[in-house]
Design goal:
By secondary structure, the chain is α+β, with helices and mostly antiparallel strands. The chain is 48% helix and 12% strand.
Length: 839
């Protein structure tokens, strides 16, 4: 012990290093002294667990037992002789030996001479202080457990490996068989030893059972469970009796190895000393059940969609849907009056989840059967589900009309009906040919697609010839495919002019209104009408640029309208259709048709001609889409704060927030992509516009490109934030992208004006008159002032002086007041919020 009372602090810091070093000394000396003992013990247990003694002569077993016992005694005696109990002093010496200068030993020394000399005493105290500082740095010393020098053949590792293998693949119960080999051992072991396992079928997912651990008399097992029993000891001492396998030729009851499957309820009994009995209750595997849920629906392009639910006690593995023609429900008129040719039922594989629990599966079967002969005819759909055993469960037949693509053009619908008649029976070939001759007799004003007309005439000639000689099935299928292609060409068309496309979109929407089409189809047709209208106006603008004099003379007799008026008219049309007021919708549609026929445009030099203007139009469209995407991100952020699930789901539009239900913000069909995917698409489109931007090499053009690059980086960051559902961060990045897009468009507009030799728009008042006859006026196809290139509206200040700022502040205060009034319509509130975000 350190004797200097001034070193008490050092002694306290040495307590734990000293204790840990002392414990390490105990481990070290025990390991070195007794490693042969636990090596012999591990090797002996390993041999017994593997059951090697059961396969050796009794003499060999005795010799092995004596050798193991003798080796154990020798190892114990030798270990006790080698073991020396470590003391505290040994720990101090071990700890001091690793410190430089042996400071602990120095602290225990006393000054031999110069005790009365002050200088000598000061030197001694300084020496002790230095040693105390070194001692305070002491760390526990790790024990030396290496035994390679004492065990050169690594016998300890061999014994340890054997013990681990025995515990994994052997059984410690087998060690008890040695007791039976001793005199009176059977009485000591209390009878022979047995083992049993119950392994349920893998598809059940249930674990195997070790029957030795099952003490209750009742045992519930799935049908098909495999039971394995092993009877040890003298043959005949234990016997097996069971009534669960229903075996006709079972092995002897005393057979040491028994194996059978549970097929029925019954009993399993092991008779004899130490035996046991169980009452087995076999749980049968029920057949799966499946049923259709909800009504069958038709997608926009004619795909059928039918939801279903399948259940099974252990899991459904597969399923099918069989679609057969419901002949008694078919209206046997016209081409369907003849007997149909036999056709095999349609068999579709049902979608199944790849991962997860299949005990209850709820999915939707989606497939496009528009071209199948059963399309738009009464059918029965029978769902079937199969489990792992091969059992099949079926649903009741579902009587429906098989959805298919709907054709709104009268000619296309007639062609599809003739195709259906041909596929129904080749006996309809002559009748179909006669009807097609009547259809194509006077094509003027009825068949507006010349290419479709020519293809139809060729097909009619072949059909007429085949009807006279007999129409083969293979040839019939080729003609049906050709009729389908011609109908698509008539319905969708490859129209040569934007006006023809607009008329076609109006006709298809007229037919949809008259026939009572589904809301999804009406939304799609409205979207087509908007696209056709935009294309038509763009073509009018290009025509006015090519021949301004003729166009301006026609403008005097034509009519113009603002974009807001046109948009209000289209919105009113869709509102009427959504409310079911089809008669009023038809009247408004006719008024819109007349308006489109008479509408003309005024177009200035800064119109929509070259690639630069096209790029600017693309940027304007991208700016609107980015603003709409930002609005949806804000709505998702609100839903997240309100605790509503499913923030960023594909196809999730905003209802009551400036969008009509089921549509996007511009009246288009809902986008099935997530917000992140749509943001990525905007980024890709922005990158694609980089090649056609105006102002290459000019200062304004380069500044605009830099702003667009900044917008692209902000879009990338917004996409990443949307994928992480960080809607607040996404809104910040989207706002940055909007600002950069606006700045870039302003710079590029200035660069374009410089290239065309035009002064920047300063609101001088020239070109402000609506419908003026000057072909150089800055007007778009709707007669709006284009202002600086790429911006809608006039650049002329409406107010002058200090009144501008006062009026602006009044407007901003009024907008804020109205946005806080929650009783206002959601559409108005959304518009007010967008104004506040922008200004």
């Amino acid at each position: 012990m350190i004797r200097d009372r001034t070193s008490s602090t050092t002694s306290e810091k040495l307590i734990w290093p000293l204790r840990l070093t002392w414990a390490g000394l105990w481990c070290e000396r025990l390991t070195r002294a007794f490693w042969p003992l636990w090596t012999v013990f591990a090797g002996t247990i390993s041999i017994l667990a593997f059951g090697i003694q059961d396969h050796l002569p009794i003499e060999a077993v005795w010799i092995g037992a004596v050798a193991a016992l003798g080796g154990g005694l020798w190892a114990l005696v030798a270990g006790l002789r080698r073991f020396h109990r470590p003391g505290r002093g040994d720990a101090l010496v071990r700890l001091d030996s690793v410190l430089p200068g042996h400071p602990i030993a120095a602290l225990t020394d006393t000054q031999a001479i110069g005790v009365t000399d002050a200088a000598s005493l000061a030197v001694w105290q300084a020496h002790r202080a230095r040693m105390a500082a070194r001692a305070e740095l002491a760390k526990p010393v790790a024990p030396d457990l290496k035994l390679a020098g004492r065990d050169p053949f690594a016998l300890r590792y061999v014994a340890l490996t054997a013990l681990v293998m025995a515990l994994l693949f052997g059984s410690l119960w087998r060690a008890g068989s040695v007791v039976g080999m001793t005199p009176g051992g059977e009485a000591l072991a209390n009878g022979p030893v047995w083992e049993g396992w119950a392994q349920p079928p893998l598809y059940t997912g249930k674990p195997a059972l070790y029957l030795n651990d099952i003490t209750q008399s009742r045992l519930d097992l799935p049908t098909g469970t495999r039971i394995q029993l092993r009877l040890y000891g003298e043959v005949g001492a234990l016997t097996l009796t069971e009534t669960v396998s229903n075996r006709t030729d079972p092995p002897p009851a005393s057979d040491p190895a028994q194996e059978f499957e549970v097929v029925q309820s019954g009993t399993v009994e092991i008779a004899g000393p130490g035996g046991r009995q169980w009452k087995i209750v076999a749980t049968p595997d029920s057949a799966p059940a499946i049923a259709a849920t909800g009504e069958i629906s038709r997608e926009a392009q004619g795909e059928m969609a039918q939801a279903f639910t399948a259940t099974d006690d252990y899991g459904v593995t597969s399923g099918t849907a069989t679609i057969a023609l419901d002949l008694p429900s078919v209206s046997r008129s016209y081409g369907l009056s003849v007997d149909p040719e036999p056709r095999d039922a349609i068999v579709l594989d049902l979608p199944m989840p790849i991962t997860g629990d299949r005990r209850e599966v709820t999915e939707t079967l989606v497939d496009d059967l528009s071209k199948h002969p059963f399309a738009n005819l009464p059918v029965t759909i029978t769902f079937a589900a199969t489990d792992a055993v091969g059992q099949t469960g079926q649903s009741a037949p579902l009587s429906v009309t098989l959805p298919g693509r709907r054709f709104f053009d009268p000619l296309a619908a007639a062609l599809i009906e003739m195709r259906r008649d041909l596929l129904w029976s080749t006996a309809n070939a002559r009748r179909s040919a006669q009807i097609l001759k009547a259809v194509t007799h006077l094509p003027e004003g009825f068949i507006r697609n010349e290419r479709a007309y020519l293809r139809l005439r060729v097909l009619l000639r072949d059909l007429d010839a085949a009807a006279a000689t007999g129409l083969a099935a293979a040839r019939r299928d080729e003609m049906a495919e050709a009729l389908w292609d011609i109908a698509l060409l008539v319905e969708e068309g490859d129209l040569a002019s934007a006006l023809e496309r607009l008329r076609r979109a109006q006709d298809r929407l007229d037919e949809a209104i008259k026939n009572g089409a589904d809301p999804s189809e009406i939304d799609r047709l409205m979207s087509d009408l908007r696209d056709a209208l935009d294309d038509y106006m763009r073509q009018l603008a290009e025509e006015s640029q090519k021949n301004p004099d003729q166009q301006m003379s026609e403008n005097m007799q034509g009519m113009q309208m603002s974009a807001d008026q046109l948009q209000q008219m289209l919105d009113r049309l869709q509102q009427l259709m959504e409310e079911g007021r089809m008669a009023e919708a038809a009247e408004l549609m006719e008024a819109l048709r007349n308006l489109m026929e008479n509408m003309q445009v005024t177009q200035g030099e800064g119109g929509q001609g070259g690639p630069g203007q096209q790029a600017m139009r693309g940027l304007s469209e991208m700016l609107r889409e980015q603003q709409g995407l930002s609005d949806e991100s804000f709505q998702q952020l609100q839903d997240q704060f309100n605790g509503q699930p499913g923030q960023d789901q594909p196809g999730q539009g905003r209802q009551g927030q400036g969008n009509r239900p089921g549509t996007g913000g511009d009246g288009q069909l809902p986008d099935d992509r997530s917000l992140a995917e749509r943001q990525q698409d905007l980024r890709n489109r922005l990158q694609g516009l980089s090649q056609g931007l105006p102002g290459q090499g000019s200062q304004a053009g380069e500044a605009g490109r830099q702003h667009l690059d900044r917008a692209g980086r902000a879009m990338d960051e917004a996409e990443e934030a949307l994928r992480n559902e960080d809607f607040a961060g996404a809104l910040d990045r989207q706002a940055e992208a909007l600002e950069a897009l606006r700045e870039g468009m302003r710079n590029l507009g200035e660069a374009m004006a410089q290239q065309q030799g035009q002064p920047p728009a300063d609101g001088s008042g020239e070109g402000e008159a609506f419908g003026r006859a000057d072909p150089g006026s800055q007007r778009d196809p709707l007669g709006r002032s284009s202002g600086e290139m790429g911006r809608i509206g006039s650049d002329r200040n409406m107010l002058q002086g200090d009144d501008v700022y006062r009026r602006a502040q009044d407007l901003l205060d009024e907008i804020r007041r109205r946005s806080g009034d929650q009783t206002r319509p959601d559409t108005e509130l959304d518009y007010l919020r967008r104004l506040l975000n922008r200004f």
